[in-house]
């Protein structure tokens, strides 16, 4: 029996467009003799729909569209489609209003619906906000053309992420996988919308391979692909035979349609095409960010982008990502030198423009700085040049970029990295301006390594950008290291504090200076008000400063001072 | 037996400061012969601590502080203190890592700890993200000086919000109130952190009075007070006798310590001082916003604020709120007229400054506008004056205000109202700039009614501000109604769509033009990117554009077009 993985790229809320994509994939699969097609979690509305789920009009439209789709599908193919389904017992039993469901569409009708059992409510996930967990083990039986019956267990994303033997702990009280194994299904399918993080595919494959082999049951995992605001879904759908080996893998960071054969004799999946994984983490992250930019622009209706080019490494990388995402001809880089800008800030930016083949504009801001100084002069009389003046430069640039964005309908990309965002080394309403913060989850040291990877064959990021000391150039002779610890140290502290939830004592124990650790902790806490107003930043780590980071601003918590 | 309500104003994460406030209240209460003191939900760390709860260092510090506090308390008084408590079974049972608890401190020790059973996970609440629900009915027995024993049922906030008979539906499967009634407790206490919304106190009192009388059990409800980012906690702690009548009410919008007598003969609470409720919704909202501004400023370490004064009604109201919150002498209003500004925009703003007694500065922006035009001229050649030019004016003003904020350490208050925020009639990085959006949850029609209430005794908001047509004055002769439906109509549509989740068909049925409804729906959806980057806005309704509003940006959902 042929089973298809439809690795789709839905647009959130675009019920008609998403249904059309499912229909097209099903028609193509049916032509290839496919009996069952799998689509990702909530494939009809796209994941995550968030508070659209609070609109009954939205939920009703989805239900209507689902039934329409059932009637349009080719008769010979059954399709699993992700949809939100009202919970009829919500108010009588005091339950949540919806289920996160997967509908089995066949023969023009909705035949059966399965409910997600484990609802992630951590990091970027808020499923308890909307959904009641399903309480039943989900399975159905499908007949092949040769009248052979296959018993298929259905799981939705998180349902497969509670295998105690693999994790060494339980994340939820029940394990749907155990229930399905007890039931003795022939095959387990998993319909997912699993956001990308660095190297996550290796973890997924280790976990799923472990489960397939432990329960001696083949598993097909289908993931959504595409960028949805801050989240990037990497696809990488993958199938395992009952010994836990990968027998099929769909593309990373692209839509795909894969057909797998379930062998009726051996009751196992047969090997087929296995798309390779990216060779390095740098390549993987770059591809993820390219997809994130491309989809955010497309799904918001932009075909061109604009960004400021400082000649520094952050804006250089973002320009390279943008050029790859939507074409160099659609990228406008704006050089905005001030009297404090170094000579190389211009020549490096110009070299980058040339290397990438993007468009550029030069708008020197010296006169505008003087105009602000003139206007504010009487009020600021007797004060020293400081943060206010530095930030004004950054904000002038932010205004110019937004004027261009508003005038020509270009999406403004902001270029700050995660290290800056963590410690607040960025200007609110200045360089933080943008519709999308492309590398807001990429630490500075990683920005460097990605740029070195980009240059592996030829110079794309001008070499001087890679070797000069990072500087905001907001006052004469300024370099980042005047205000911050070296990035190797800063990034290690940030990694420990943010990703590993280490205490200050643990970070000090790892070899960092107590004074430096204290300073960094204070900077992180004090920059919360900036992060609150940041544009969505593409998430590539397991803890980004986005929808999964929920910190109070008016707060006085600081970890106790560590000592040596 | 004397029982005290300590209506406290904690700062999130300030464990030492919060513990000190609890200790001071307990010492004061003990002197008055109080046997038991009640404090609000999570009183030790403040509510909501959000992702601080993910730091084990934070949770450990809290536990340490709790035990310290137990030892410091006067011996004759027992105190219920809110704290987050690690769940020892988290990883073995697959449960959440913490409980939302209330600790009974007495005799120098932690005697007992009670866990919250109903965990709100909707709107601004994310409790399933952190907490495992408690599974046990919570009660303890306390002896009075006369050796009389009182059996007290303990509930935490949401635990009392699932009375089916009152709501006409269940919100959760269990009802802790029923369990306590079955147990036959003498008194139920409810330790809350219940955020303010307009008229919510009436709802609370109706619900709690109903429960007291239904179960023939007196109830003491203790609420937190204070502003924490977007949330305002109104206090209004209140006690009911067993017939469901209010016998005591603490202040609204202020810290308070109330002492109530539990009569050992009648096993009921005796009447004592009942603080009055605000006379009008306008007074109530004004008081809430004053507290929100005062606490946000104080808890973030600001003693002065700055805001732009356009001569319009929004900035006038915000200035009045700020003056009340932190003193007129600490408020700086900045007038930034452009060549498009009307004469009255200046004279009205000056009249306001005089009426309030605040400080002011005038910074005309004409020269800066010319500087931007000059710089952008070649790039914009051949284009019409439009949104780009309009927004640049707003952004120049935003820059000037931020320069003043950065230079003098003033908190910048933004002045946009909810109607504007809903439809995107505001400039990102312009008039949206600020650390706190004071009236972002107040619809324009309500802005007018609050200003009329403010003027009830004498003119505070200049009369001309109340009667002239609202205008952004970003081009000659512009008024808001060129772009938007009249505010009475707009606000009614917004109320239906946002608060009542009405479908477009329902809104049209209520008498609105289909074309207008469609337009408003589109505007709401398209402004999501602006709201994403807005400062925290003080919440006064049950659906604000803040932490409780979680919408996708790159989304294509629009309700189906309604027809007549």
Automatic annotation (TrEMBL), chains A, B:
The keyword Nucleotide-binding applies. ATP binds at residues 308-315, 415. It catalyses: deamido-NAD(+) + L-glutamine + ATP + H2O = L-glutamate + AMP + diphosphate + NAD(+) + H(+). GO terms for biological process: NAD+ biosynthetic process. InterPro entries: C-N_Hydrolase, C-N_Hydrolase_sf, Gln-dep_NAD_synthase, NAD/GMP_synthase, NAD_synthase, Rossmann-like_a/b/a_fold. SUPFAM superfamilies: Adenine nucleotide alpha hydrolases-like, Carbon-nitrogen hydrolase. Keywords: ATP-binding, Ligase, NAD, Nucleotide-binding. GO terms for cellular component: cytoplasm. Deamido-NAD(+) binds at residues 391, 420, 530. CDD domains: GAT_Gln-NAD-synth (cd07570), NAD_synthase (cd00553). Gene3D superfamilies: Carbon-nitrogen hydrolase, HUPs. The keyword Transport does not apply. It is an enzyme of class 6 (ligase). L-glutamine binds at residues 122, 194, 200. The active site is at 41 (proton acceptor), 116 (for glutaminase activity), 157 (nucleophile). GO terms for molecular function: ATP binding; glutaminase activity; NAD+ synthase (glutamine-hydrolyzing) activity; NAD+ synthase activity. Residues 1-276 form the CN hydrolase domain. Coiled coil: none annotated. Signal peptide: none annotated. Belongs to the NAD synthetase family. This is Glutamine-dependent NAD(+) synthetase. The gene is nadE.
């Amino acid at each position: 029996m042929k089973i298809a993985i439809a690795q789709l790229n839905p647009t959130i809320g675009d019920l008609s467009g998403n249904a059309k994509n499912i229909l097209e994939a099903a028609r193509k699969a049916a032509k290839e003799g496919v009996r069952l097609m799998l689509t990702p979690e909530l494939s009809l509305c796209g994941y995550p729909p968030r508070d659209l789920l609070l609109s009954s009009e939205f939920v009703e439209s989805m239900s209507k569209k689902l039934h329409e789709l059932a009637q349009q599908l080719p008769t010979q193919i059954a399709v699993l489609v992700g949809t939100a389904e009202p919970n009829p017992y919500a108010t009588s039993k005091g339950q949540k209003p919806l289920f996160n469901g997967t509908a089995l569409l066949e023969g023009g009708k909705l035949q059966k619906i399965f409910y997600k059992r484990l609802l992630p409510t951590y990091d970027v996930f808020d499923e308890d906000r909307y959904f009641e967990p399903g309480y039943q083990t989900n399975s159905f039986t499908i007949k092949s053309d040769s009248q052979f019956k296959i018993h298929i267990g259905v799981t939705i994303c998180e349902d497969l992420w509670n295998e105690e033997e693999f994790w060494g702990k339980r994340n939820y009280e029940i394990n749907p996988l155990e229930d399905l194994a007890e039931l003795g299904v022939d095959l387990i399918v998993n319909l997912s919308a699993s956001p990308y993080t660095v190297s996550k595919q290796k973890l997924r494959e280790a976990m799923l391979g472990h489960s397939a082999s432990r329960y001696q049951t083949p598993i097909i995992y289908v993931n959504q692909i595409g960028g949805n605001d801050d989240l990037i879904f990497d696809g990488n759908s993958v199938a395992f035979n009952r010994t836990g080996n990968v027998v099929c893998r769909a593309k990373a960071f692209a839509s795909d349609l894969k057909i797998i054969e379930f062998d009726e004799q051996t009751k196992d999946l047969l090997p087929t095409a296995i798309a390779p994984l990216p060779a390095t983490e740098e390549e993987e992250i770059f591809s993820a960010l390219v997809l994130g930019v491309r989809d955010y622009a497309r799904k918001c209706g932009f075909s061109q982008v604009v960004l400021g080019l400082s000649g520094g490494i952050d804006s250089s990388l973002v320009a390279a990502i943008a050029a790859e995402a939507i074409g160099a001809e659609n990228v406008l880089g704006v050089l905005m030198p001030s009297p404090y800008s170094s000579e190389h800030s211009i020549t490096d930016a110009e070299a980058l423009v040339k290397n990438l083949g993007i468009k550029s504009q030069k708008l020197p801001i010296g006169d505008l700085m003087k105009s602000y100084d003139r206007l504010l002069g009487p009020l600021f009389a007797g004060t020293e040049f400081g943060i206010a003046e530095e930030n004004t430069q950054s904000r002038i640039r932010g205004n110019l970029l937004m004027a261009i964005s508003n005038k020509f309908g270009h999406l403004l990309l902001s270029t700050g990295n995660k290290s800056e965002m963590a410690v607040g080394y960025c200007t609110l309403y200045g360089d933080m301006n943008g519709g999308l913060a492309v590398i807001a989850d990429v630490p500075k040291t990683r920005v460097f390594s990605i740029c070195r990877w980009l240059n592996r064959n030829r110079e794309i990021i001008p070499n001087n950008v890679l070797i000069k000391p990072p500087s905001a150039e907001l006052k004469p002779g300024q370099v980042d290291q005047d205000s911050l610890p070296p990035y190797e140290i800063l990034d290690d502290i940030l990694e420990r504090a943010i990703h590993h939830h280490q205490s200050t004592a643990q970070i000090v124990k790892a070899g960092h200076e107590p004074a430096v650790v204290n300073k960094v902790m204070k900077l992180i806490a004090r920059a919360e008000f900036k992060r609150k107003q940041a544009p969505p930043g593409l998430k590539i780590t397991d803890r980004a400063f986005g929808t999964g980071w929920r910190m109070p601003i008016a707060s006085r918590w600081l970890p106790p001072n560590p000592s040596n």
